[in-house]
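pasting for the record
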Amino acid sequence: MDLLLTGGTVVTMNREREVLVGADVLVQDGRVAKVGRGLKARGTRRVVDVTGKVVLPGLIHGHLHACQTLFRGRADGLELLDWLRERIWPYEASHDAASMRASADLTFAELIRSGSTAALDMGSVHHYDSVFESARDSGFRLVGGKAMMDAGASVPAGLRESTADSLSESLALLEKWHGTHEGRLRYAFAPRFVLSCTPELLREVARLSREKGVRIHTHASENAKETEAVRQYTGGRDNVDFFHTVGLTGRHVTLAHCVWLSAEEQELLRETQTVVCHCPGSNLKLASGIAKVPELLEAGVSVALGADGAPCNNTLDLFHEMRLAAVMHNPRVGPLAMTPMRVLEMATLHGARALGLEDEVGSLESGKRADITVVDLSGLHAGPTPEDVLVPLVHSARSSDVTHVFIDGRPVLKDGVLTTLDAASVLSSAKSNVERILKRKKQRARG
């Protein structure tokens, strides 16, 4: 159905970065038809008055683990490699299709409630159909794929797979889901990271991604100990350097984290136009470090924002990540490097590039998909609103300020209430499924 949003402050994120006060957004056939003032509602079946509110492109996560949301708060106090081997991998190995669906439902409910409309997701090794099914039913825009793990130390039996099985299952998921539901669901190859993949697997992923025209999504240089382990595993090469040797760089590749980069790797990212995703909340909580995001952006590298997983962040709210990204670099580079506009670009335009959807989403312009978020900044924590509305959007806004979310012009959040998911049912299912997993783990531990 057609939709007209009237009277809002529209943050377009178009080429001119226009912010239009008292403007309207007309949606037809799931796409933005016009943005401007005085648009007529003639023939439009839905009119939403957003006077006094801010209308912006839906926020986009450039790195996510929907499979982990069920385990929020159960892996604290550990650095990356121990966090994976002692907590997260055993939890992921305990998933079945039902618990994976519960985790994904909880993920997409939280994302929509906090104004996000799309994400690049890395699953666990198995049951990724459940994640796509959840995105399908919730109306969420998802680019994602199963984790690929044919190597690595301390990998549970439930996650370790052969190279052939990893590739065949990934291709089966691609054939089933890629481009379905009006293009809202797309596949991405997701080799987990250097230490969990053989060079043979990575080379074949590089070949297949180009042959099939799909993205690659992986981790790189997240933690100092991991980076050193990669050097030992690869005969002295750093993460990005090694990925480049096996074909995993380029516009179609998104690398999460990139905290511990050499100068040569930073230049390699620029030359190959590889996309980076900055995950400030996760990098701080796991004590991984602080990526040199201002330098990457100044060099012309596209840097998106992501929450990573709930157990290494505790929140999937991208407003939280914007706030962190805007302030955490200031002590090193000064207060002008990460302006509100630059940070919002990371959460919209650069996020779209991380998903390979820059022609479809990320801004409110004629012809683009109508993925739209409406935010009310009238709360005590955000007011009084300054002339530059981007300041409270980046520094003050919270998930609870989001009033409406549309994906392809369809309402998935209306007046702060989810329309495609039932919050109470989602939480109940998450609780019962995590209790079932914990009980099963205890039984296995007893022998």
